[in-house]
Description:
The complex is a heterodimer of chains A (411) and B (436). Chain A is an alpha+beta fold and 411 residues long.
Amino acid sequence: MMQIKPILAAMRHHRAGTVLIALQIALTLAIVCNALFIIQQRMAHLSEPTGIDEANLFVIRNQWAGKSSVQQTDAQIQADLVAMRQLPAVRDASPSNSYPLRGGGWDNFITLTPEQVKPTTDGSVYLGDEHTIDTLGVKLVAGRNFRAEEVGRIGLRQDVFPPVVIVTRALADRLYPDGSALGKPLYAMSPAPSTIIGIVDLLQRQGVSTWDTTYAYQSLLWPMRAAVPQGVFYIVRAKPGQLAAAMREVPKALYAQNRMRIIDPKVGDLSFAQVRERAYDSDRGMAILMGIISVVLLAITAAGIVGLTSFWVGQRRKQIGIRRALGATRHDIVSYFLTENLLIGCIGVVIGTLLAIGINLWMVTQFEMARLSLGYVVIGVIVLLLLGQASVLTPAMRASRVSPVEATRSV
Amino acid sequence: MFVHYLTLGLRSLRRNPALTVLMVMSIGLGVAASMTTWSVFRAVSGNPIRDKAAQLYTPQIDNWGPQQNEKGEPPSALSYTDAMALMRAHQATQQTLLYPVQLSVLPGGNRSLPIAVNGYAVYGDFFPMFEVPFQYGSGWSAADDDDRAAIAVLSEEFNQKLFGGANSVGREITLDGHDYRIVGVARHWDPKPRFFAMFGSSGFEDPADFYVPFNRALDLQIDTAGSNSCRGELTSTGWDDWLHGNCVWIMPWVELDSAAEVARYRQFLEGYAADQQRAGRFAWAPNVRLRNVMQWLDFQHVVPPESRISLLVSLGFFVICLVNTIGLLLAKFMRRAAEIGVRRALGASRREIYKQYLMEAATVGVAGGVLGLLLTAVGISGTGLLFKPEIARLAHLDLSLVGLTLVVAILATVAAAFYPAWRAAQVQPAWQLKSN
């Protein structure tokens, strides 16, 4: 503390260097805070659970080649299901229009009364049968599963609505916040009500985009098979440890059933690990990029501080020598440079904090980002101040080794 | 003098290798980060049809009303009813409707396994409007559209797969069990982003394999492979019911060659919506839009936010690298204050000192640029790790990016050197000589 006045006086002498270091610390703080925040947001997003047995699940995208009637297609789907369920590596299989994390798909607005124009909320629609709950591995927390005789059939562009539905807890609570959803009606853009007969714990939506976030985990299961020309998804749950075997066996068994179908070799047979990887690839990419930039940025800033401080030490060898000759200890010299750096660092982090918040506020308006939590700024401030002190240490130690004799030289 | 300063600069760089390496790394990393993210950004934000972007427009009509539309904006596609009304009115020089379709084909005859192919159902005007280049044959005429002809245009790649690249015009192809006569083979054509089919698509998917007449596709009840969005109560009992409902799924495009035509078409759209209101079909005032290609891409947010954020963060990173370079150059130059003093005392003007030190900075810039170029190449090959695959593959290192990398590196370093070089030129010879 006793040294602050002479430090301020010295700083006035090399204003440019001081400004440059402060500026660099400010900009680095602003970018690193926001980068860390982006990393945290993206990592949180990509580690959200789906609620299904991801480790043992895979999805077959089955397209039909050539046209057939609704009845024929539905009969083929049922034959396929029987064939798949008989395979030794398969625990269960069910037909659907989609699967969680597919990246958007079928969703319906939901209302509590038929005449309501403004929807209450939105739900991701999964078609399935009485095997769907076991196949996905989701937990039924209230009510009952579908019965085989309740499973209906949808043809091309037919709006058929089931009299009974199973919903996720998130959707049940949104529609009936008092927890009384079981047995109550909902209207998924349907003229007649569907009764909620079961509630499952957790089932993620088909999409996880910003738009979907508002309706996260709001899904509903419809007891329906879609016998439409576009094809069908088969969700298959392998027995534990037999995923690879099941993924090989199922397409073979399906082609043996009927070869007039298309299972794309690249995207027709995806394990859920692959599905997850695809769904979140841009989140992962952003986190990686922000991580690389933060690390390199901190390294460059540290190197810059080392460089400029070394220059100052070189410039002031004579003055350091004089101070040493006048009785300053080595410790005094080191603490002089540390204090000087701390002062510059403080100016930098004050400006940097303002910049970090400013950049975040601008990003909020531009990219639908969340508000920066101040914890990140605090962490950033501590990291940068410590980084500054650590970078100054080596040049400061060198300065402390300047011999008092230097004061007497060359004058 | 130029060569002399250059050798002086190179010699000086060797004098404090640590500082030099630090500066070169700083510039190199900053440039590389910016150029890598720029290469992705320019690919996704580019104009996909430079010649005609200002003549091609997509009309939007609000058939959902203020309570159900998208925050006041009409839906991003048309319902069948409105799309067909625009076609019948024929108010533009050229016009087309389109929707994506996915069909099956047996590439090796009846005994092979079927594969899925992607295409679009379009009107004949599609090909001249979007300047589709042809390898063999051509598109089809308005008469073919009216005749609901069973014809098809294949892509060069699909023709290669099916016919080994031979002229297949006049031959037949069976898609989903229906026969089509091939009338043309388009040369490789893949505008990115695919501005004309953005409804429910990122705009960066694989190019189309084929094109079939819109009317024929409807006759065969070929469903859209893209998005379909509806409002209100859903009561469709099948294909025809669905067609005449309020679901939107058709993408319309018109070609308007002058500002007067655009104004006239906009008036026509307003008039059409007003007619619908009078007829009782719409219970709201006309709410229509007419956007050209670039306005449409902007409205559809075709540039992924990831690309924009990463470019901005990289530019910020580059700025910090430059601030760092200013500091290091200042230290480097001022360390030689004594030498500058001697030179000045021996008659060198300030201008010459200034020139010498800028030249030295330029050599740092060149070295930084070369390093930046290497790192950009590494960065671009690594974009697959950072962006979605269909976007990452668009980034590539071409001659213009090489040039840009070097120029940006050198200019930025020289700009960063203005202040340090000015400080060097301000050195007082007398003071320096005295203190030595």
